[in-house]
Amino acid sequence: MQIRKTYKQIEEVKNRIIDLSLIFATIIGFTAYFLSLTRYSKTGFELSFVTDFIVLCILLAITIFRKRLSLKLKAYITIGAIYVLILVDMIHLGVLSADKVLIILIPFFSVLAFSLKKTIGIFVLTIIGFFTISYFHLTGYLSIPTQDDIKLSAWIINILLIIIVAIVVLIVQNKFNFTYIKLLSDLEKTNQTISEKERNYREIFNSSTDAIFIHDLTGKILDVNDSMLKMYGYDRVDVPNINIAELSSGKETYTAYDAGEYVKKAIQGTPQVFDWQAKKKNGEFFWIEVALKKTNIAGNDRVLAVIRDINEKKEDEIQLGMYRNHLKELVAKKTKELEQANEELHATNDNLAHQKEELVTAVEELQTTQEQLIQSEKMASLGVLAAGVAHEINNPLNFIQGGVVGIENYFDEELQSHKENIKPLIHAINVGVERASGIVTSLNQYSGARNSKNKECDIHKIIDNSLLMLHNKIKNKAEITKEYTNTKFKLLGNEGQLHQVIVNLLLNAAQAINQKGIINIRTEINNNNLELSVKDTGNGISKENLLKIFDPFFTTKEAGEGTGLGMSISLKIIEDHYGKIEYKSEINKGTEAIVTLPIN
């Protein structure tokens, strides 16, 4: 289907022609109409008086609202009005009709709005109508007035109608001439701009050192730059006959078909960059790098190919590849020899590594045992020392206790009246003796048999003794809360070792509190097990360190404040009592140690 192209400027000219024609036709038409009314006194009423008036009113309305109406609608109405005027006038006057001159305007207005084919059809219908009316006049079915009936007004109307046609023709000719000249001027400027752009494009196109091809979407070569001719050895006259097959080596994956596949991918919108083995005009092969991209040039889809000569680089890569492969073969050969030699070394090293692992394990176990022996010896020495100190302190305490009893008896017998005055003093001495006696009792916990675990132990008494020993370390840092179970139970173990464990737990809890906090001690019976919980509100232990607290020599305390063996020894003691120790902790919230021991 052929599409009829229109241009905005021409459409505007057509609109202005019809608008001006409507204005002049309306003015002159009304003038002619009023002149035609002068024959009313002679001829009487005629149908043309009504039809002409209606047509003129329609033309007047179109003229007033011409800016709101489309070009085609104004053309349809104008042609229709002309048809009515001609038809009525020719039926009445026949060949003497002045309106027949308006026939020339029908194809003229038609071609402004319609196609040439439709314009010819409209004009043919007009001619057929003209000859039909002529036939009726010639056969006598219609009659025309005599020459005597034609007055001056008829001649004036003829002149006015001729003027209308002439003015319309002049308007058309003037407007089209003006527009044609302007279009020619614009076309000349456009051609100059296009020529300038073409020169610039060609200059840039040919100044590139890379070869450039422009293909259509079928792969046909449309244009190339000078660098392509130089690179491939062709002349400009050869370009129309060159195809992709002639420019490819045709080896393996470098055929015209393979090139076509790359072009298809580029047409689909995916730019392609690849190495290619090309062929010159003289048949010489060389390597190029190809970049394909779909683009639009002058409104047409094209495939742009930019070619770069990489022959030297590619040959170097091939040579390097050969050297590399040869080197790989040599390396593989030497590697195989080394692997065979290494297999023997690995076997020997495996034996040595196994022996080394056994030796390291033995040394570590020996070091741990040695440290634990040293600590045990220290604790044993401490127990002996504590027993001696307790014995030496108990004697003076007995003397003091006996002296206090003697003083009380003396005052009862001799100084009864002063007894009330010295009661506070006697009470203070008794409290001091009890405090010292409690400390001696706590020290005695270290002097018991170190290996016996069959002694019945009062865990609450052991806890209280431990608190008594650590009183000075705890009193200014933490408040002690106790939640002892009321359930009766029997716990067998080594009282001195359990005392050592509890002292370690309490001391760690106190050291974890920076300023003021709480240490909660709780005992509970659960499934024939005693659970002892020591919970503090201290700094807490990180997840990383929580996994290491039972490792020998691990400590987070300052140098000189701990050996890192306390919890390791405590774990060993509890495990020897068939129990376990668990720790729960959160940073800045506190830590809870839970000791579980079997009972009964």
Structure write-up:
By secondary structure, the chain is α+β, with helices and mostly antiparallel strands. It has 3 domains: 8-183, no CATH class; 208-309, Beta-Lactamase (2-Layer Sandwich), CATH 3.30.450; 452-598, Heat Shock Protein 90 (2-Layer Sandwich). The protein is built from 16 helices and 12 strands. The strands form 3 sheets. A 5-stranded antiparallel β-sheet has the order 2-1-5-4-3, with helices on both faces. Helix 3 (47-64) packs antiparallel against helix 4. The longest helix has 103 residues, at 311-413. The model is unreliable at 1-6 and 147-155 (pLDDT under 50).
- Number of H/I helices: 16
Unreliable runs, pLDDT <50, ≥5 residues?
A: 1-6, 147-155
Mean pLDDT: 77
User: How many DSSP E strands?
Assistant: 12
> Radius of gyration from the CA trace?
62 Å
Could you outline the blueprint of secondary structure elements for this entry?
Blueprint: H1 8-36, H2 40-43, H3 47-64, H4 71-93, H5 105-113, H6 116-138, H7 152-207, E1 211-215, E2 221-224, H8 226-232, H9 256-267, E3 272-279, E4 285-297, E5 300-309, H10 311-413, H11 419-444, E6 455-457, H12 459-469, H13 471-474, E7 478-483, E8 491-493, H14 495-511, E9 517-525, E10 529-536, H15 543-546, H16 566-576, E11 580-586, E12 590-598
Can you summarize this structure?
By secondary structure, the protein is an alpha+beta fold. It has helices at about 10-35, 40-45, 45-65, 70-95, 105-115, 115-140, 150-205, 225-230, 255-265, 310-415, 420-445, 460-470, 470-475, 495-510, 545, 565-575, and strands at about 210-215, 220-225, 270-280, 285-295, 300-310, 455, 480-485, 490-495, 515-525, 530-535, 580-585, 590-600. Strands 2-1-5-4-3 form a 5-stranded antiparallel sheet, with helices on both faces.
